[in-house]
């Protein structure tokens, strides 16, 4: 009996220790996300306390930085699942314009708070600062409730992960969302590390690619730590050595885990191996509706129409008359010329890569290429034609008839919209993505010189060019969703070295909003070396003049009175060597004609 008692006691202790333990359940992506959202809210509360208690500027700056780092852990989800409040959490400190309703929403969020804190915190801004912090906390509460309510499935998480890598590349390391504090590189570390947990949890089939992605992220973080200075950070190496391989591995990881693509008409091909691959961008994300989808047959018909004088009233001008392929589809003139030979007010922009924008013309008056072609053809100063009147002649032409039947096999009678769609389709075929810049980041044939690489690093860093001309399209279509094309007020002079702003009111002519006075679309810089003169009025004849203008701070920086300049007016302080490198880089954006 004495021998049995110790055994029974031992069994009882074993049962108490192990028998009542619950089976461990790994925390889900959604649960971890909600926990991280609370962490951000707690950091915002702490920031408010530090400001309220009149702590030192250094302590306030540190509290703000901690809050930003915490936010970067959830950025992948906030931007993807709650884009509306995201705009007022970490959007630009500029009014959000709703031009169709002729109203605007004042900015809120981190970037507004940053402007109140950096480069120096003025205590008289305390009340406004506390108000902005309270608004930020309220917007985060809205995000939290939305993220609680939705179902977060692996396909959406994987897609959001890819988008976050692209966001880091286009908006993160460029300083787009930390324009004054310049904390982009430390924040990039937090953004990347947040993705490690996602990939781990998505790896249900034990893919070995997960460890490769983790290793790349760890090395990328170490690269950031080794050089966290915003102005000297080597973005070219960082993108090519880390971000592009991470993107490629995510596609491979997705296949190995049998995670389907999210079905949506996205501007980015979900199977693209990087943001720089030739097949990355989907022109059909920018069309008016499904019947306008791009086909090679439509483009072939459109090419014939593009070079045909029959679309003009007097049959003496075609689209190609002003968009000459030998000049990267521009005309080389300061401003375009009318049918009678008089100068028109605006410079002729290139139509290359125009299909990857959500607005056409300098004043953005048309939303797509179909409307753009009709606008030009019917313009009394430009072609003075009428597509409706051109239909009989085109439909009776045997060459056209054959092309039309191939382009629109379901239609028996030629219609006006088909001609518009065909011309637009030809323009959509002009996106080559084969420049020296492209092939370098695609890792195929060419390598940027040390000067060109310096120029790229300046473009995406110290010179702040990439905060408006977003990589890799180099236009104002905002990545990584590409649903919005931006305009800017830069204070372009009326004449070179002049002190009076150009009288062209730009987008204000259409929408009478003060923020749009002298505002013009941010155009692509692709093929920029072949498209001089520059600006909406052709006021600058060389890239060197353009760089000098921006280096001085745009219109305000050169002494022009600009009421609403959106371009920062502080001088960039670029050295002559740096300015030369910037120009050298921009020349790498020229398409290879082969």
TrEMBL record:
Gene Ontology terms for molecular function: cytochrome-c peroxidase activity; electron transfer activity; heme binding; metal ion binding
Name listed for the protein in its UniProt record: Cytochrome C peroxidase
Gene Ontology cellular-component terms listed: cell envelope
Location relative to the cell: Cell envelope
Organism per entry: Flavobacterium aquatile LMG 4008 = ATCC 11947
InterPro entries (alphabetical): Cyt_c-like_dom (IPR009056), Cyt_c-like_dom_sf (IPR036909), Cytochrome_c_Peroxidase/MauG (IPR051395), Di-haem_cyt_c_peroxidsae (IPR004852), Imelysin_sf (IPR038352)
Transmembrane segments: none
Domain Cytochrome c: 297-431, 450-590
Keywords, in A-Z order: Heme, Iron, Metal-binding, Oxidoreductase, Peroxidase, Signal
Keyword set includes Amino-acid biosynthesis: no
């Amino acid at each position: 009996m004495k021998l049995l008692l110790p055994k029974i006691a031992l069994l009882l202790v074993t049962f108490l220790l192990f028998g009542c333990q619950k089976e461990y359940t790994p925390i889900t992506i959604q649960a971890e996300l909600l926990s991280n959202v609370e962490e951000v809210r707690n950091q915002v509360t702490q920031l408010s306390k530090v400001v309220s208690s009149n702590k030192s500027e250094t302590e306030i700056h540190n509290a703000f930085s901690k809050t930003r780092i915490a936010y970067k852990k959830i950025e992948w989800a906030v931007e993807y699942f709650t884009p509306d409040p995201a705009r007022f959490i970490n959007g630009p400190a500029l009014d959000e314009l709703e031009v169709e309703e002729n109203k605007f929403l004042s900015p809120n969020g981190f970037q507004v708070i940053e402007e109140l804190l950096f480069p120096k915190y003025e205590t008289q801004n305390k009340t406004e600062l506390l108000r902005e912090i309270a608004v930020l906390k309220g917007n985060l509460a809205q995000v939290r409730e939305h993220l609680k309510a939705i179902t977060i499935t692996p396909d959406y998480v994987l897609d959001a992960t890819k988008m976050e890598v692209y966001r880091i590349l286009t908006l993160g390391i460029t300083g787009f969302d930390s324009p004054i504090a310049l904390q982009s590189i430390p924040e990039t570390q937090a953004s990347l590390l947040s993705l490690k947990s996602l990939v781990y949890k998505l790896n249900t089939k034990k893919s070995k690619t997960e460890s490769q992605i983790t290793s790349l992220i760890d090395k990328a973080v170490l690269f950031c730590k080794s050089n966290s200075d915003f102005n000297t950070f080597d973005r070219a190496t960082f993108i090519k050595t880390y971000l592009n391989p991470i993107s490629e591995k995510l596609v491979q990881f997705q296949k190995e885990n049998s995670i389907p693509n999210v079905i949506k008409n996205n501007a980015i091909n979900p199977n693209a191996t990087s943001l720089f691959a030739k097949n990355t961008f989907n022109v059909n994300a920018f069309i008016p509706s499904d019947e306008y989808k791009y086909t090679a047959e439509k483009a072939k018909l459109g090419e014939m129409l593009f070079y045909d004088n029959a679309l003009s009233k007097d049959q003496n001008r075609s689209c190609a008359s002003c968009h000459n392929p030998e000049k990267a589809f521009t005309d080389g003139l300061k401003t375009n010329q009318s049918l009678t030979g008089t100068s028109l007010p605006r410079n002729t922009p290139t139509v290359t890569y125009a299909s990857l924008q959500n607005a056409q013309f300098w004043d953005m008056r048309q939303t797509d290429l179909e409307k753009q072609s009709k606008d030009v053809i019917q313009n009394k100063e430009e072609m003075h034609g009428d597509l409706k009147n051109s239909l009989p002649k085109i439909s009776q032409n045997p060459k056209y008839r054959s092309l039309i039947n191939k382009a629109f096999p379901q239609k028996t009678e030629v219609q006006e919209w088909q001609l518009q769609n065909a011309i637009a389709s030809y323009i959509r075929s002009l996106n080559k993505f084969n420049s020296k810049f492209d092939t370098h980041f695609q890792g195929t044939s060419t390598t940027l010189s040390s000067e060109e690489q310096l120029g790229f690093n300046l473009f995406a860093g110290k010179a702040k060019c990439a905060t408006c001309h977003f990589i890799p399209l180099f236009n104002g279509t905002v990545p990584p969703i590409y649903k919005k094309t931006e305009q800017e007020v830069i204070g372009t002079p009326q004449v070179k070295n002049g002190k009076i702003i150009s009288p062209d009111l730009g987008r204000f002519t259409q929408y009478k909003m003060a923020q749009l006075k002298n505002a013009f679309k941010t155009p692509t810089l692709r093929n920029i070396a072949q498209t001089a003169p520059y600006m909406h009025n052709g006021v600058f004849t060389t890239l060197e003049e353009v760089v000098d203008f921006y280096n001085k701070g745009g219109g305000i920086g050169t002494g022009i009175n600009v009421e609403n300049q959106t371009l920062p007016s502080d001088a960039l302080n670029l050295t002559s060597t740096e300015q030369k490198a910037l120009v050298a880089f921009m020349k790498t954006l020229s398409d290879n004609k082969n």
